[in-house]
Amino acid sequence: MNIKLVKDFSKVYDAYVMPKFEGEVKVYEGLTGEEKLVLEKLIEKKEFTGKKGTSISCDLMHKGRLVNITYLGLGNKEELRPYEVIEAFYKALKGIDGEILVGTHGVEVSQVVEAAHYSKYDFNKYKTDKKDPKEVSFDIYVEEDTDAICEGTALAESVMLTRDLVNEPANVIFPESLAHEVTLLGEKCGFEVEIFGEEKIEELKMEAFLSVARAAEKRPRFIIMRHMGDPSSTEIHGLVGKGLTYDTGGLSLKPSAGMANMKTDMGGAATVIGAMAAISRMKVKKNIVTVIAACENSIGGNAYRPGDVIGSMGGKTIEVDNTDAEGRLTLIDAVHYIINHENVKEVIDVATLTGAVLVALGTSTTGVLANNDEMYKSLEEASHVAGERVWRLPNFPEYKELYKSKIADLKNTGGRFAGSITAGMFIEEFVGETPWMHLDIAGTSDASAPYGYYTNGGTGQIVRTLYNYYNKK
């Protein structure tokens, strides 16, 4: 696939895709005579006015060549949201190939570039009977010079990177191989990478993280990514991703059906990796450090057990109520590390943490806990631009009673009720006074069926929100 910007549309293409706002439907300027009349009659017959969600398409002869012309209705220009642009162009571009001219009148070019990339995404690397992809090139018409193709490509490729990581099976992506992929990505995108092995993790006294990792044959890695985009500032932003590359549930073993898709339990890690790729490629002027405590939660004779009392890097003791509540145990050590060793001024953790968030919010909305109103406001604004829905959950002090332990400082579950809230607040116990947000993406990071401009499997949701959060704040 080839994408480039053009200022001239005198060339004849196989297909033309043109945006039209409500009440502003004009026939493509390159058409004259009978071909123009045909399209005008079609517009009249279909009563196409540019209403959002509508489109018309037809084949006609243009300069001696059979071409397809599609008009996309985008509705009222003032009410148009960025994700609606991406979704409209995605649907129009997905089913066509050849040489295509894409109009951008009245819309952001970067969003059209994103749509073009997503329209050809297909995770089929393990299919032996896959067909060779058809040749396709997108010439995106612009009226003036712009570098929007750079941002659109960086965002799309970072989202698709996240999708790929989530879609890869656990025998391909495990702690060591994930660390290797991040190292290569750092070299490509320009961010610094540091990897801690088990000896260093033990030295740092990450007991909660190591307890989860204890029984797995694939040994843990602690991954650090640093983007120092503003050398003039001492402020550092922290980002943490849950990196469970596979989760059996440990000795609190999941049923077989519940384990089938647990390769996706590193969706938080994949999301922050994708965000760092976009941030570094676009040279965002922020200092951002990202960490991932990568491991597998497995079973074995040395596995941690329900009833055990374990320590943590932050010093608090934890009664293990359920070994399947493991993500929060890895995250508390990661959060403590990034606050106390990387000196971040604020921290966001991203995790496929609870099934309870799906019960509360379904698969379209990411649940958020925050101890800082301004942080959440900035995240909400960034999510509106990205078209990725977030919803703030309460973290009232009464909920703390649910995960108190009789024999330790805390226990790692809060019982049946308010599961997403108590899981997030468990992490909050290790944050101290640092501004913090927790994003539970268990419902949004993976799709069982295509929707919007997402395919089934990894969605890459929240990558664009995080990019907007750091780039626009």
Describe this structure in words.
This protein is α/β, with parallel strands linked by helices. The chain folds into two domains: 141 residues, 3-Layer(aba) Sandwich (Leucine Aminopeptidase, subunit E, domain 1), CATH 3.40.220; 320 residues, 3-Layer(aba) Sandwich (Aminopeptidase). The protein has 14 helices and 19 strands. Helix 4 packs antiparallel against helix 9, helix 10 packs parallel to helix 13 and helix 12 crosses helix 14. The longest helix has 20 residues.
Task: Describe the structure in brief.
The protein is an alpha/beta fold.
Major sheet characteristics: 8 strands, mixed
General form: elongated
Distance between the termini: 33 Å
Q: Could you list the spans in which at least 5 consecutive residues all have pLDDT below 50?
A: none
CA radius of gyration: 24 Å
CATH fold title of the largest domain: Aminopeptidase
How much β-strand is present in the residues? 15-25%
CATH class of the largest domain: Alpha Beta
Describe the protein's topology:
Blueprint: E1 2-6, E2 15-21, H1 33-46, E3 55-62, E4 65-75, H2 82-94, E5 98-102, H3 109-119, E6 136-141, H4 148-167, H5 175-189, E7 192-196, H6 198-203, H7 207-213, E8 221-228, E9 237-247, H8 256-259, H9 267-281, E10 287-297, E11 309-310, E12 318-319, H10 327-340, E13 346-351, H11 356-361, E14 365-370, H12 373-386, E15 389-392, E16 410-411, H13 419-428, E17 436-440, E18 446-447, E19 457-458, H14 463-472
Parallel strand pairs: 1-6, 2-4, 2-5, 5-6, 9-10, 9-13, 12-16, 13-17, 14-15
Antiparallel strand pairs: 3-4, 7-8, 8-10, 11-12, 14-17, 18-19
Helix pairs in contact: 2-3, 3-4, 4-9, 5-9, 7-10, 9-14, 10-13, 12-14
